[in-house]
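Hello,

I think I submitted the FE2/S2 (inorganic) cluster job twice by accident. Can you confirm which output corresponds to this input? Input:
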Amino acid sequence: MLRWIANALTSSVGRKIVLGLTGLLLVGFLFEHLHGNLKLYEGDGEAFVDYVNWLQGYGWLLRVAEFGLLGLFVAHIVIALRLTLENREARRTGYVVRSSTGKKTAASASMFVTGALLIAFLIKHLLDFRFHHEFFDDPSGEVREHLASPGTAAIYILAALVLGLHLSHGFRSAFQSIGASHPKLDPILEKLGPLVAALLALGFASFPVYFLFFGGK
Amino acid sequence: MSAGSGHDTMRITLKIWRQAGPDAKGGMVTYTLDTVSPDMSFLEMLDVLNEELLAKGEEPVAFEHDCREGICGACSLVVDGIPHGPQSETTVCQLHMRHYADGATIHIEPWRANAFPIVRDLIVDRSAFDRIIAAGGFVSVATGAPQDANATPIGGEIAELAMDAAACIGCGACVAACPNASAMLFTAAKVSHLALLPQGKVERERRALAMVGAMDAEGFGNCTNHFECMGACPKGISVENIARMNREYLRATLVSRDLG
Ligand code: FES
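Support: Only one job matched these inputs. Its output is below.
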């Protein structure tokens, strides 16, 4: 009965579509995440505390949303990992001399590496805040304390830049994968991709910079 | 060969992948040609090399070629790391030695992909492409008597798009160029070409599912949108076709009545 779904989800094109869709949904999440974080800049951190409390107020609904988010991450990561392993396997003997026709970019060639770095960061990030009990007692204070430490701030800044590199290929690529390519759309996406990447990278990098260099003031 | 055309001859060093058979160990072998004319085509230069090798009693370099005018897709050499060599939108049979300087060193290798196993030297087995076509790259119609040419109207723009996709000569340069050895551009060109036209639309769902299935079964890699294929394609086929194939596949998955 569900064979057709299984076929689609194991095919090359089907998995590309899922990879692209989950990637775009994760970008959507990142924008809301950035929006929430921006409240750190409002009125001595109270706005951020209000935001955290407002989110927590959703109770079990928030848990459901978190599991949905986890599902997006897991699907995105598992598919990307499988595709990468298959792609390495598809050319067991490589070229002696390798050149590029000039189409691939540093970002497209490093998706696996940037993705792996982002996973590592994600784990650290969750341990720093989401699974750190004190965080919910004093959200603004905990963020300030973590990000004012030079080591942690450096990791957060670096992660934001890696995210930017990942998205500078990933955003445009996701649209291509889900079949959204058109002479009217493509030039827009080519500009929008780097813009989205830069916006999120600079946005997220701004917090450690703010707390490290300006002490959150 | 255009000897005596007034050009000086060039000295060219070739480093060519030699492999006696599918399971033999291969390696790069160096040859030097002293009298290469700039008027020669790349394949004519290899002909000269082979004549010299035969005269010396050595095995000639095996490479594929047929039309030598850029329309059959038989020629398949990776030249200095780029399928069909440095000239864009040009098959290697249409590449000429005038693009090289005297004293140049040129590396020549076969297409590299597990799905294209080496037969000998620079020749690979591309029957995987035939099997993808056999899975659905055709229109099944009971033709009957020929109908009026204008009975099925096709807009000019659609005809052009279909023709652009149909320009694929099935050489496999897309696979050779892809960092993932993916055959998406080839398969997409065929899926697009037929899906765009009224005659092909009839079987579009079955075709998209079957051709993608056949492509996956051959062990090609997956597309990650590097677009190297488009850069290497001697016919300039656009990756827009890959997006169209992805749409066709998604559509077919949702509307096809085939339950798998
Ligand atoms: S030999 Fe026919 S395309 Fe090159």
